[in-house]
Every structure is written in structure tokens, then in C-alpha cells.
Amino acid sequence: MALFLENFYLQPFKEDDTMFQWLVIQAAKTGRPVQGYDGKYYNADFKNLQLILRVEKNPNDGPSEIAGIDTHAPGMAVWTVQAGEMNIQRKDADKLEKRVVVSRPDDSGGMAVVNIVNADVLPSYMPGDILNLQMAMFPLSIHYYEDEEAYVDAEKISVGGERCTLADGFVMPIGLFQNRNPESADFESDEYSDDIVLVRATVQEVYVRDVELTEELRCSFLACIVKTEFGELDIIHTLDQVDESERDNIKKGATVCLYSDKDLNSLTTVG
């Protein structure tokens, strides 16, 4: 799971070792322990930001070790999905991480790739297992268009050599298609690319939400609420992550499309 501090206006904490260590210490001090099978999670709430420390058990009865830290934004968007058959867990993932392919329980529609935080509290991710996941997406970059027509004019992707646009609410795990396709030039070249997902949707609401690390350290970010084929989705980002020419389009009824520096985006979730 990646650490998306930049989506909360907290990039300096990611770039400075001393500031990052302070943040980890605050999460450890204030985090609520959640017991898993192979360790604990410490869930620290800083108003609308949740930091989650993954702490693994030592198999030799030594001190536990911090394996990593995740970001999440609490919200009301929940997907009810079923786990897929494909194993896409990274080879370098620790025991407290989990990444799965999911689909709708009735097998209609497409697929999505989700990273699940607090994942080790669940005993099973067998194919067909039903999961209720509170969802948040952290795009590496994001585009807003005034309406569908403006989106269609500006954004097209290539599928089989043809130029296409995404349907409203569609989720496409394009990184998975490229990395897991034996006929692709990128076959199994980058396990992290499995996270790459395309999303296009209509904005339902946009909220400004606050983060409070301490009484003096505060900042705000944007939560864009959209509807997808799987249900509602909270898109978490800052104003600075939107091109200045598109900021007037951050409003209800606009079309939003999510991309990364590869013209794609990264999807993360909470369970």
C-alpha cells in the first residue's frame, strides 16, 4: 500500500525524514490497536485523515517490527464485492498487506483492483468471498471537465488500436490487463502496475475536509464523491493536484477522469 500524504497537503512529511519519523511516532502514540492474525494495526485518526501502522509479529519471540504505514480517508462510500480467483499479491508484500481483484457479487460488470487496509483481520479472501469495503481513491493526477461533451473531446484511450472513451461510472483495471497479459510487452514487468486503474465518473458532490495533526498543524483537502458501477467512491486530492485551467470545473455535474503519470491512476481502499 502506498503512502498518499500528498493527497492531504502533507507532502513535506513524506520528503523529510525527521518529519516523517515524527508522524510515525504520533500514529504509534495515538493509534487504536486492531489485532490481526500475524500482527497488529494501529489506526490513528487525525480528523479526516487516518494513518495506519502495520506492526508484524516477530516469529522468534523478539520485538515486533513496523512493516509499513498506510493512509486512508474515512467516508460513507462502501462497496459490496466478491473476491476474484486471480492472485495478485506482490512478492515483496508483508503479511499485513492485501491486494485483490474484485467484481460485483452477481458477476455483472467489470473488475477492479483494490488494496485493503486492516486486511489481516479477515480470515479468508477465497474466490467468491463477499467483502464490504469502505472505499477511498488517491489519484496521482486528476482531470475535471465541465461536462461529458468536454470530456469526450479531450480524453480518449486506445483499446485494440481504436480510440475510445470510458462510460460514466466505469472502472478499468488497465494496469492488470497489461501486466498479467502474456501477449503484452509489459507482461509481469512491474507488480506495482497492477494497481493502475482508469475511472471516469460524474461528480455528485465536492467537500472540503480538514486534517488536524495537532492544534497548530492543520490543513484541508478535497473529497470528490462520484458513482461507479460498484457504488459510490470518495476521490481524495488537493487543489494543487488539479491543473489551474480545470479548477472552475470542480463542481457537481462535472466529469472527472483519473490518471497517473502514465495517464492512469492508483486505487486504494479500506476494509
Low-pLDDT residue spans: 260-271
Average pLDDT, rounded to a whole number, is 88
What is the gyration radius calculated from CA atoms?
19 Å
Alpha-carbon distance between the termini? 13 Å
- Largest sheet composition: 5 strands, mixed, barrel
Q: Label the overall shape.
A: globular
Element order, helices and strands? HHEEEEEEEEEHEEEHEEEEE
According to DSSP, the number of beta strands is: 17
Would you give an account of this structure?
- The structure is a single chain.
- With 271 residues, the chain is mainly beta.
- It contains four helices and 17 strands.
- The chain has helices at 11-15, 17-30, 148-154, 174-179; strands spanning 32-35, 39-46, 49-56, 65-72, 78-83, 99-103, 111-117, 130-137, 141-145, 157-159, 162-164, 170-172, 198-212, 218-228, 231-237, 255-259, 267-270.
- Strands 5-6-7-17-8 form a five-stranded mixed barrel. A four-stranded antiparallel sheet has the order 1-2-3-4, covered by helices on one side.
- The longest helix is centred in the first third of the chain and has 14 residues, at 17-30.
